[in-house]
Amino acid sequence: MDFPATQPKPTADGKIIYYPPGVKEITDKITNDEVVKRLKMVVKTFMDMDQDSEDEKQQYLPLALHLASEFFLRNPNKDVRLLVACCLADIFRIYAPEAPYTSHDKLKDIFLFITRQLKGLEDTKSPQFNRYFYLLENLAWVKSYNICFELEDCNEIFIQLFRTLFSVINNSHNQKVQMHMLDLMSSIIMEGDGVTQELLDSILINLIPAHKNLNKQAFDLAKVLLKRTVQTIEPCIANFFNQVLVLGKSSVSDLSEHVFDLIQELFAIDPHLLLSVMPQLEFKLKSNDGEERLAVVRLLAKLFGSKDSDLATQNRPLWQCFLGRFNDIHVPVRLESVKFASHCLMNHPDLAKDLTEYLKVRSHDPEEAIRHDVIVTIITAGKRDLSLVNDQLLGFVRERTLDKRWRVRKEAMMGLAQLYKKYCLHAEAGKDAAEKVSWIKDKLLHIYYQNSIDDKLLVEKIFAQYLVPHNLETEERMKCLYYLYASLDPNAVKALNEMWKCQNMLRMANLSYVYIVFNHVENLPDPGKAQDFVKKFNQVLGDDEKLRSQLELLISPTCSCKQADICVREIARKLANPKQPTNPFLEMVKFLLERIAPVHIDSEAISALVKLMNKSIEGTADDEEEGVSPDTAIRAGLELLKVLSFTHPTSFHSAETYESLLQCLRMEDDKVAEAAIQIFRNTGHKIETDLPQIRSTLIPILHQKAKRGTPHQAKQAVHCIHAIFSNKEVQLAQIFEPLSRSLNADVPEQLITPLVSLGHISMLAPDQFASPMKSVVANFIVKDLLMNDRSTGEKNGKLWSPDEEVSPEVLAKVQAIKLLVRWLLGMKNNQSKSANSTLRLLSAMLVSEGDLTEQKRISKSDMSRLRLAAGSAIMKLAQEPCYHEIITPEQFQLCALVINDECYQVRQIFAQKLHKALVKLLLPLEYMAIFALCAKDPVKERRAHARQCLLKNISIRREYIKQNPMANEKLLSLLPEYVVPYMIHLLAHDPDFTKPQDVDQLRDILLFLYQVMSTQTFWNLQNPTLTQNLKT
């Protein structure tokens, strides 16, 4: 390189300054533009120099020193400052490793000056950006800032540099800018003696959510920087958290209040940054301060629950300590722990086993909100992927469907319904998943047995929206219902049937909207508030004729599902108020409309069901694919149609439907034929006039079933003829006469069906057949059948045997007893004194323990059957007032003692029959006293059942008196208090009660009476005189 020919200028200390060729002296005497022009040439010169140019380095040393003078470092012109900074950066590069500046103060001023110039990196569109980038690149490549390690206050420079770089980084910078910044900062961290708290703060502050949201690029820069320097910076981070978390020195940093946010971000960046911090968190989890524990739980929930976290496996002590917070005494801590479980189950299925036991405990938490969130946690995970929740977790949700709080029950029921719809109805995860949650449909329907109207309404809503969605097309909806019904357990089937019956009661009770509104308030949630709303609804209906007609159409038997949907939407639209987002009045009306609207069943739906059943009969249905056998599908389909024939009889009236039912009547399956007859009975009122061809085909089939079908078929056939034919007297006579003539006690197996048919005929048409039946009863039933034992029973000592092992003769005798009762119930009078003789016969059978002839030819199990039949017959006759009056106290006592029969099955079945009649208020009050005799039943479950039956009957009678003002006229026959004398009478005349002084005999009786009489429901608090007398 040529040396300058220009005359050098001495500096203030006498040194000669050489400028590059063509560059004149740079002083404060020239303009800024000229200074910039000359500096550009100096920049070019230093840019081209390298470390090996020893002569040039020596030549330009005075110039290098001159560029660090106050004139340049304090120059107000930013272009001048930028050019000087570029020169200084090159000077550090050229003279490395020794800087030409020996004064520490000067070095500090220079680096602070260079740092300030780096702010120009912010504007990438600036004409000077390339020079700023060159400055950054040069500093990073040379690691110029490492010179500052020799300075005592180097930290001030580094802090300023870090803050500057984090403040200027933005989304317009390319990857190179970020990399040079990282190189510059990481060299300072990794090659220094340590990172001070202030310098650490300048990095960590960018991780705080507020700063993170303001400058995402600064966050990313800090993130990469920490990852790159993890080994070096980890001890510094550990020291910071130790000072704040353990020692409580929040003054060490302005970021102390953000420690948990920082830990979360640092963990996400690299868990190794917190190797020494995690044990400190375990310490904080055990803090005595509930709010502090809550903050740590929230933090750890995020750390353990994050998708890629393996903290739970890497730090088992901390994980176990965290799980302990599920049992924390502080409610918010338990609540936060439960909320965490959802994310953990979704992101870490392997931890489900650890969580299950803790969630089990929390599902029984005394706090409603926690039990609620346990359900939300499990259901949320289950909806994401059913494999994330095990059977035990689903079991917790199942339990909560019976929670004492409505909010919890509702969440559990709705959650299960959503799982069922997703995995069973839509089959989103295959057959295994569907099988896993197949129990849900049964469980949800079982809840309909609960007393709360809220539960019932929700089950109806779930059925309409999730189990059998009403918005499906008719064929798809009926297919869904068909196979659902076939796969339900017996109790769920009963619940579903009851639900339809309740809805039908509301819809069909009366076509008058006034009746519905004012007489069915109890079928709405919060009946007190509902009373006000229904009055308002009545007023609206009175003013709007169109609305009234829509409601009448909605409850009409001929209303189709599509019409119902239109009516409900139209009524809701008219009652809606746009200015009132939450409208309790509208919600209450919707509840009523949803209960009475036929959203599932209409004529089209019944036709679709029948077609499905026909396919099952023909073997072309998808029965096996749906998980049911063809026989099961056919039988369940008929049972379904039978139930619907009660609730929607008009929907069956079509030739196509009846043709299919006739086909079922010809099938060999007795249950199928029986159900088909019952459907005809319920729906065939217009067959005779509208469908003569069906009538002509049906009559001979019904005659055949009444004569030679099964007992159940015979019963239904007789009732069907009586219900749907106008010439029923002729039809019944054509059955009665040949059957009455052909009775033969020597062939008992051929007697059962004729006896059933004759009994029901005499009950349904007493005026026509009472007299002919009297001779049949006297000459055949009593003398020839009941008073003779033609066969000898097995002497095996058994007290009970299955139905299929009972001898035909005993079965015939049981039906003969039932025939006697039906005959008397049909007559409903005792003018011929037939009831007295029948009661004496039944009493004699009870006295003889079932062996009426006392020839000892009958087996023990057959005697049990006859005792049960006799006791049940007396109880049946007692339901008719004219016969109840003639039952003597001795006969009542004999009937009551059946509940203490030596045979367990007799006691059980008799108690069930007794309870069933009492809850329907069919039996007089004294029969409720019979349950008191169960006090000495040897089986604990029977005693408990008797007590529950008694309490149930007391509750029903109380409710009946409350709901029926007219009941006050006959309180003596309804008030439960009046059953006490009958109880005492029965107990006092118990044959086993022989010694009143015997404590053992008295103990069980008194305990049972005390348990019943000590309950609040037993005593009528509104009648204090009666109550006090009875208690005394």
Please, could you describe this protein's structure?
It contains 53 helices and two strands. Helix 23 (406-425) runs parallel beside helix 26, helix 36 runs antiparallel to helix 37 and helix 40 packs parallel to helix 42 (752-764). It is an all-alpha fold and 1032 residues long.
Number of strands: 2
Shape: elongated
Kindly state the percentage of residues in helix: 55-70%
Q: Identify low-pLDDT runs.
A: 1-7, 510-522
Report the portion of residues in β strands.
Answer: under 5%
Q: What is the alpha-carbon Rg in Å?
A: 47 Å
The average pLDDT is 83
Distance between the termini: 130 Å
Secondary-structure class: mainly alpha
Oligomer type: single chain
Strand order of the largest sheet: 1-2
Query: Helix count?
Result: 53
Largest sheet: 2 strands, antiparallel
What characteristics describe this protein?
two-stranded antiparallel ribbon, 1032 residues, disordered N terminus, PDS5 cohesin associated factor A
Care to give the gist of this entry?
With 1032 residues, this protein is mainly alpha-helical. It contains 53 helices and 2 strands. 66% of the residues lie in helices and 0% in strands.
Task: Give a topology summary.
Elements: E1 9-10, E2 16-17, H1 32-48, H2 54-59, H3 61-67, H4 70-73, H5 78-95, H6 104-117, H7 129-142, H8 154-168, H9 175-191, H10 197-204, H11 209-214, H12 216-228, H13 230-246, H14 259-269, H15 278-285, H16 290-305, H17 311-314, H18 316-323, H19 331-347, H20 352-362, H21 368-384, H22 391-400, H23 406-425, H24 430-436, H25 440-446, H26 453-467, H27 474-487, H28 490-508, H29 513-519, H30 527-543, H31 545-554, H32 561-575, H33 584-596, H34 603-618, H35 630-647, H36 655-665, H37 670-683, H38 687-690, H39 692-708, H40 711-724, H41 728-741, H42 752-764, H43 766-786, H44 808-827, H45 834-847, H46 860-877, H47 881-884, H48 889-897, H49 904-919, H50 940-963, H51 980-988, H52 999-1013, H53 1024-1031
Antiparallel strand pairs: 1-2
